[in-house]
């Protein structure tokens, strides 16, 4: 039998991790909807909403980050970050932890914690090694970012294991903002570039001061929360981040991308960043908007759309295929946008439970569409290798 690690599927990081993320996303949302309906159990002793947040942040999102970084670092350095066997082992490590969270009682809590906490440091080691060898200082930031995610994940597990009661909530809250910071930083790198490259008539003058201001304002949000909690200071920082990220987004001329699904999905995702910051600020200023509305704008909106759009784009570009969204993916992008709108609509006087369920189903269907559409692309050799 042919060694599975010689297959194209384990040749580059985006292949297993994007498929894994796309398969996990609908499972997580369907399990969550089933739990809310009273039909599905979750791991004993875990606060249900914490399970939901953890698996979206440290299960789904960590797979997307792994797939993107393990692929991009080859372009950044010209070096291969990990071989097929190492990639296969890293993917199995991620998968084992996900099964532990999906199947109550499969593993003791301490064993599941060890499995789950091992993944991000292993990923950081693979990335850091080649970044150091290549002297690629510009991207060293990803190593401390992964270390911060690991520390926050450790806080979650310490709460669950009874070592540090109460640590899960701050860990998950900070994780959402850390994801928002990553999206702000990387979105600002790639979205203008992709837009100019695809639309010949669009020219986006560089504004380094605005890029730095938006990124630094976003990075200041968790600091302000740690210093002062949900305070007027935090509201001011959130409003600053909302204004700066919105201003930056407008300079990219998003209205000119409406005819290009591979572009508008990224622009739409980035737009949800200032929306999320503004909704959280509005809560602090007494507008009657729930705090979680902002969190869902950042996750269901910004994370969902940007992850789906980048997964679609990277898989085409790195398998030698034209940068055109397959028709099912155009529908998937629309479903993800609908999912985000429905999730925020659940905070209006409309029927909350129904909108939450519909949002979860739309999210699940969007990623299921990706998994089905991109499965042949992710498991087969590059298109130019077949020609």
Automatic annotation (TrEMBL):
Keyword hit for Membrane: yes
Q: What are the alphabetically sorted keywords of the record?
A: Membrane, Transmembrane, Transmembrane helix
InterPro entries the UniProt entry points to: NnrS (IPR010266)
Q: Where are the transmembrane segments?
A: 12-36, 56-74, 86-103, 109-132, 139-156, 168-188, 209-227, 233-251, 263-282, 294-316, 328-346, 358-379
Signal peptide stretch? none
Under what name is this protein listed?
NnrS family protein
User: What lineage does UniProt assign to this protein's organism?
Assistant: Bacteria, Pseudomonadati, Pseudomonadota, Gammaproteobacteria, Chromatiales
């Amino acid at each position: 039998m042919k060694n599975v690690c010689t297959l194209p599927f384990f040749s580059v990081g985006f292949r297993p991790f994007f498929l894994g993320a796309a398969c996990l996303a609908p499972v997580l949302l369907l399990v969550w909807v089933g739990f809310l309906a009273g039909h599905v159990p979750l791991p004993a002793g875990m606060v249900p909403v914490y399970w939901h947040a953890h698996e979206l942040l440290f299960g789904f999102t960590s797979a997307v980050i792994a797939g993107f970084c393990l692929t991009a670092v080859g372009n950044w350095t010209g070096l291969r970050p990990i071989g097929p066997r190492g990639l296969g082992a890293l993917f199995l490590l991620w998968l084992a932890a996900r099964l532990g969270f999906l199947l109550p009682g499969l593993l003791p809590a301490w064993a599941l914690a060890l499995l789950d906490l091992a993944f991000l440091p292993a990923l950081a080691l693979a990335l850091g090694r080649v970044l150091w060898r290549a002297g690629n200082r510009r991207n060293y930031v990803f190593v401390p970012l992964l270390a911060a995610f690991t520390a926050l994940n450790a806080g979650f597990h310490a709460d669950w294991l009874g070592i540090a009661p109460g640590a899960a909530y701050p860990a998950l809250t900070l994780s959402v903002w850390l994801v928002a910071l990553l999206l702000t930083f990387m979105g600002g790198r790639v979205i203008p570039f992709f837009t100019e490259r695809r639309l010949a008539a669009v020219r986006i003058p560089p504004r380094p001061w605005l890029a730095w201001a938006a990124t630094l304002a976003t990075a200041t949000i968790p600091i302000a929360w740690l210093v002062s909690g949900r305070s007027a200071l935090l509201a001011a920082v959130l409003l600053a981040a909302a204004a700066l990220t919105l201003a930056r987004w407008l300079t990219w001329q998003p209205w000119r991308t409406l005819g290009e699904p591979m572009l508008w999905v990224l622009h739409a995702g980035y737009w949800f960043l200032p929306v999320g910051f503004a909704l959280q600020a509005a809560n602090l200023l007494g507008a009657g908007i729930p705090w979680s509305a902002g969190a869902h704008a950042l996750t269901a909106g910004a994370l969902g759309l940007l992850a789906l759009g980048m997964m679609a784009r990277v898989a085409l570009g790195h398998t030698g295929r034209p940068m055109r969204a397959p028709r099912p993916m155009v529908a998937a992008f629309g479903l993800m946008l609908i999912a985000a709108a429905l999730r925020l609509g659940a905070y209006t006087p409309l029927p909350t439970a129904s909108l939450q369920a519909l949002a979860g189903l739309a999210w699940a269907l969007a990623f299921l569409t990706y998994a089905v559409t991109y499965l042949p692309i992710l498991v087969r050799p590059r298109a130019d290798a077949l020609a």
